[in-house]
Amino acid sequence: MAISHGTSLVLGCHQTVQEAIQLFSEHGIAAVDVVDEHGRSVGRCTWRMLLRAIAKEMDRMALIGDVLAAFSMDGKTEPKEDSMETSDGEGDSGAAAELERLRRELEETHRLAETMKTVLDAAYEGVVVVDGNGMVREINRAYCQFLGIRREDAIGKHVTEVIENTRLHICVQSGIPERGYIQKIYGQPMVVHRIPIWRDGKVIGAVGMLIFQGVSEVYAIFQRLQELSREASRKEKNEAEASKQEAVASAAVGVERIIGRHPTIAAVKQMIRRAARVPSTVLITGESGTGKEVVARAIHEAGAHADGPFVSVNCAAIPEALLEAELFGYEDGAFTGAKKGGKPGKFQLAHGGTLFLDEIGDMPLAMQAKILRVLEEKKVEKVGGLSETEVDVRIIAATNKPLEEMVRDGTFREDLFYRLNIIRIHLPPLRERKTDIPALLAHHMERLCRQFGVVSKSFAKEAMEVLINYSWPGNIRELVNVVEWLISMVEGENIEREHLPAYLSTIQPSVTPMPDGGANIADRWKEIVYQSERERIAAALVAANGNKAEAARRLGIHRSTLYEKLKKYGF
Ligand SMILES: Nc1ncnc2c1ncn2[C@@H]1O[C@H](COP(=O)(O)OP(=O)(O)OP(=O)(O)O)[C@@H](O)[C@H]1O
Hints:
Structural class: alpha/beta
Helix content: 40-55%
Distance between the termini: 66 Å
Strand order of the largest sheet: 6-5-9-8-7
Strand content: 15-25%
Oligomer: single chain
Number of strands: 20
Shape: elongated
Bound molecules: adenosine-5'-triphosphate
């Protein structure tokens, strides 16, 4: 770091205060000559000057030349330049403390860097780290040996120049982790993981891991698994038992289908696994569209009731007068208009499985009392019926309403609240787990494209940034709507920033949750989509001077699609 001048150490006047502090600490010196770019001495920098620079809150990146200019006048009056002693009381002692803190910070950073390098080099797998521009910042010994290159030749190069067929630079752009991908290096299929590194809501780099056991090892495990499953099915004589196993196998998929690695979601997944082990009632809370039903299904699939049905009831969507008949069923002729032969209720239909009571906060008080009775007695009585039927049902309830407050206001029964609130799972809004947005976008893009039979599209970095920064008041449901809209609107395979509906980057909607569940989001969504699409088409026509082919190209849609849209929007 220091310039070597003969045998003595010197500082260049273009070096920084930070570098000077490091030099002084490392060499235990208190002063050093400063030279210009021609190696000519321009003064002497002392600890005292550095202390003063820091006490005057000069930037640690400030140049030593500037420190000399500002403080070398003091040099004449300094008692002894090599001395660490200070004379002007509080200012200096504050700065000395700051210097001591910096020294310790630096030592700690060195120690961590050393430890990290040792760990990396000891790792059996290949590890490479790139920065936000895809430049190699670190690569371990194992990776270098595999590639047959030297570490110092790789550092600072773009990763595509170092590793064949890499996608690490793409992972940095998309922010989407890629696990268990097959990458051909030197003609060999290798298993790799690519993990983005996030800081302050931005991807600042990515880590690539090369798994040396590679594909052959994975195939070996796969074959072993297949053998095991064949063995298991040979033993299975009972067909019912076999179908039960199948259900249990897909249960793991149930939890795994919950996309997200944010710590809050990792905790939710853990809660799901725990809840699945016991038959207790579960209360799931969270804003509309955060995935409450997905979580309820995951608990059902992973639990002992997985063989049974999963029956979902939206308590807010059924008129109060019909809710009782819907939940408990009715007997033949129970009321005018009742179906001949009667009808089983949702509790009965869910027998041996799970009943998901969505929007429980919207259930009328009278019904709350009846539900509580069923929960306690595990028996239901049909409307117009004379006898009770036993039911074995696991109850999972969900709401986006503040139930505790409703209990205080007397709009929700306290006893029912406590009966439901045995296991509580709270789902965070999407804006509080932004790091999951790229993975959710990629998941739903792939899922919907497969469903529609079209080629999947990828997001450009700028488009992804807009989507990450948006506050998603409608949560994951809104995100799914955006993906679906983009699939139908964008014809190419790349989604650029200008393809996104304008409101995503211009209007930052209030972070207040949508109180209305899914219904109003859909209306609001349609209106926003209509407006923003119209605006986008108008802007493209203006930019293309009215040339429709050019406007279609700018919009990323086919000319015939543009003509249809012009008609639709009355242009
Ligand atoms: N963790 C997740 N991973 C992937 N997709 C998810 C996840 N959570 C929710 N979704 C998707 O988001 C949409 C909304 O989910 P869901 O219906 O479960 O939300 P909700 O909280 O029950 O909504 P509401 O309160 O309006 O009933 C669905 O399309 C679902 O597939």
